[in-house]
Amino acid sequence: MKRSLTVSLAALLLSLYSVSCSSAPDAGRATDADGFADESVVAPALAEAGRAETGAPKEARGEAAPAPAVMYDYGASKSLSGTSVPRGGAPSSSGLKAGFSDDNEQFNYFVGFLEKYSDVPHYGYDISERITARVLDSAGKPVANAAVSVRADGKVLASGLSYADGSFRFYPAAVGARSGSLELRASAGGMGASATTRRDGPRVVELRLQGPRTLPDPLPLDLLFVMDTTGSMGEEIERLKATIEIIHDNLAALRPRPLIRLGLVLYKDLGDEYVTSVSPFTDDLDAFRAALDPVVASGGGDGPEDLESALDDAVNRMDWNRGGLRLAFVVTDAEAHLDYGRRYTYVDAANDARARAIKLYTIGTGGLPLEGEYLLRQVSQLTDARYIFLTYGESGESEGGAEGSVSHHTGSNYQTDKLEAIVIRFVKEEVAWLSDTPASVDEDYFSARPVGEESRDETLGKLFVEAVGNLADYSTFRFGPEAPCVILPVSATGDGLGPSAEYFGERLVLAASEAGRWKPVERKELQRVLAELELQLSGLADPATAARAGELLGADLAVASSLYLRDGRYELFLRLVRVSTAEVLAVARAKIDKDLGL
After folding, report:
1. Which residue has the higher pLDDT, 154 or 310?
2. Fewest beta carbons less than 10 Å away: which of 116, 127, 356, 553?
3. What is the pLDDT of residue 37?
4. Do residues 94 and 225 both lie within one domain?
5. What's the whole-model pTM score?
6. Are 1 and 98 spatial neighbours (Cβ–Cβ below 8 Å)?
7. Considering only 142-146, 304-308, 380-384, 445-449, which range has the smallest mean pLDDT?
8. Of 149, 174, 208, which residue is a domain's last?
9. Distance CA 25, CA 301 (A)
10. For the residues of 357-402, what is the DSSP string, one character each?
11. Does residue 32 carry a pLDDT above 50?
12. pLDDT value at residue 16
């Protein structure tokens, strides 16, 4: 998938389930209805922490609470490409092809995105500092639904359940953490684990339980569709009606065997037929289809819709399962009405969903403006999900495009997947974490080959600028262009590769300087450092050694690279290493035509 995300967002598929149980706008939400029969499953520490991490409304804690401060100025909307976006109109034809953005993978990029477009109406939540607890069993398999808590100075700062991959993410700056030392605890199936770390320490902390994980059979799998049903969403509704059986049948065949329940939250806006309409989960596909048929698009008209009420209902009114997977797909072509002054905001809903291990995948369709994209991406990132956008069968780069001298390759490029296929893929990935067969991972790499009159130096310069950008965007640790980084010499891992390794290293240094993603550190003291470490150049590929060399050279970051010759092509593996912890922050891979080497 391309890293430079185009957002000429257009329509999508999905849709929904039946219409019942209409709710009034923001009217007396049940603050004790957390979606679980027993809140102790979500970790007893939630109450002890004052719900600081999950963002419960202050009135639920017995405090008077003014509406959060927010900017709102609903003028002419623009997409990220800077072009005006039509309101409420889908293109006349649709391939319903979807691209997606994983903002937890491209974490450094996403923090920059939030900062760059911070003038759009939104609620802030500081994610710039992120630590991930990873709960594993004694065999190293991820443990889902483990109760995790983060403590400092005897106070619980955050607590919640782990996702299917065993992860629970924590944002110290967002909850006002002051201590430099953090204690992480996890428990599941009568087993427990704990670890102590520092805020400036590793970004991933492992919590390993003493025995094997236990998995329910069948595996509960709840899929909720949260759907904007205003007048411009008719195509999306009809698309779900045509594809829900395909989605269901593909998921029913998975192993471990899932028990699938489908649910629906429909929403419009104040003054429409309803603000929200909630249909409970059901495992009866025929009942779901029968309830879906009467759903039609109507109402709306002013641009923003009441998405916050829909997210409130999605998180707090649905009877989510306790021991399985909980996934929602939020579909809209409009931003949220933040000028309603709701005390329970979309950020509160996302944080509560994260505490309960509910993933909120967000899907932007039909001319969604930047104001809508911004908050949808906040919601999906906070809940470990992804932001999906529709390309409507666009040509050129968004369709895969013609390969030039340098291109980015991944099996999930836009031309490969209809939206329903992406939905199925994401659910399969979640189920695979709980199986003994890992999910297949698309091969992701950059490639370079000679083209026309372009010189070898020009081609490699383009390649390494792309690779450097990839390392910076996908870093799990936030850094800016002033961070000192040293590009270490490329390590040759085979006879005769030395000259090409040296040449590629020189081009990489030049490209890193051109890219401007960090502050280059000179390598004039490198020979002294190698002598001090009693190393040859080939030893610098090891992250721990690269970190030590980077420290001696005065860098905060180091790029360590290894060169191989495979199947008649060079393969270059690049790792961005954080010097203070020796952890690998990001990796990139390049396949280079042999004619571009020496």
Report:
1. 310
2. 116
3. 31
4. yes
5. 0.81
6. no
7. 445-449
8. 208
9. 18
10. TEEEEEEE-TT--HHHHHHHHHHHHHTT--EEEE-TT--GGGGT--
11. no
12. 29
